[in-house]
Write a structure and sequence with these properties.
By secondary structure, this protein is of the alpha/beta class. It is built from seven helices and ten strands. Bound molecules: iron/sulfur cluster. The site of iron/sulfur cluster (SF4) has 14 residues, from helix 1 and helix 4.
Length: 241
């Protein structure tokens, strides 16, 4: 079946009441057959889970977008909110709370009342992949659903990519070229439209069984994003030159 991602709209209200707007994939998006089949299997096994493309979560006036790769089976796929209930979710959301970029409490559930201030969270691949690993074809197929919410943020100035796979999707969604924008923790890339991309290790990445991203390291990433924000003038995301 062929559907133009750019014209796909929500066919029905999502399974939980999280904001979804124009340019969002339908609840039964069929564009990645492997992921659609996995979603159907999970709906049968866990009918009380969200089991649908996970929408962005955050502030529609965000200056900062944090891009992850894809929802975890028992994380965003279960709760319906990006990074919520996932191993790295507490580190990300608690850091945003500590740095006054969120209000409330992170309760690892979509109805915990957490509100982000100036920040939006987006998964580059909206559907849960088997073994937490989408293919590059799936990442490319879902890219319009990353480009659209980024383009819809009028105040966007900084994008943080969590991990190398999210970095690849973010570079392409922002109109960049990968050979020129190599991934590295705290590496920075500036795009012709004025948006800065700042790389971070992924909060669930392990080395010798230990997390490679600590809360202090992620605080430093957010602190750098705040500096980059101050350097860039406010303005809508412009088309790459
Ligand atoms: S990952 Fe994206 S493009 Fe693929 S099925 Fe899900 S919503 Fe559709």
């Amino acid at each position: 079946m062929s559907i133009d991602p750019a014209s796909a709209v929500m066919a029905a209200a999502p399974l939980s009441s999280i904001a979804a707007g124009p340019g969002e994939p339908p609840e039964d998006c069929p564009l990645c057959p492997r992921l659609a089949a996995y979603r159907a299997e999970l709906r049968t096994l866990h009918p009380d889970w969200y089991n649908a493309p996970v929408p962005p979560f955050g502030d529609p006036e965000a200056w900062l977008a944090i891009v992850g790769l894809s929802p975890a089976m028992k994380g965003g796929n279960r709760t319906g909110r990006v990074f919520t209930g996932e191993k790295g979710g507490a580190l990300v959301y608690e850091t945003l709370l500590a740095m006054a970029l969120a209000e409330g409490d992170y309760g690892a559930r979509a109805d915990d009342g957490l509100v982000l201030d100036g920040v939006t969270m987006i998964d580059a691949v909206r559907c849960v992949p088997p073994n937490n690993q989408p293919t590059r074809v799936e990442a490319r197929t879902c890219r319009p659903f990353l480009e659209a919410p980024l383009a819809a943020l009028p105040e966007l100035r900084v994008v943080i990519a969590l991990g190398e796979d999210a970095h690849r999707s973010a570079v392409k969604a922002l109109g960049g070229k990968l050979p020129k924008a190599r991934f590295g923790h705290l590496a920075e890339h500036r795009f012709p439209n004025g948006v800065r991309l700042l790389d971070s290790r992924h909060p669930t990445e392990l080395q010798d069984g230990a997390p490679v991203l600590t809360a202090e390291m992620f605080e430093a990433v957010i602190a750098r994003a705040l500096v980059l924000r101050a350097e860039e003038p406010t303005g809508a995301l412009r088309s790459p030159e």
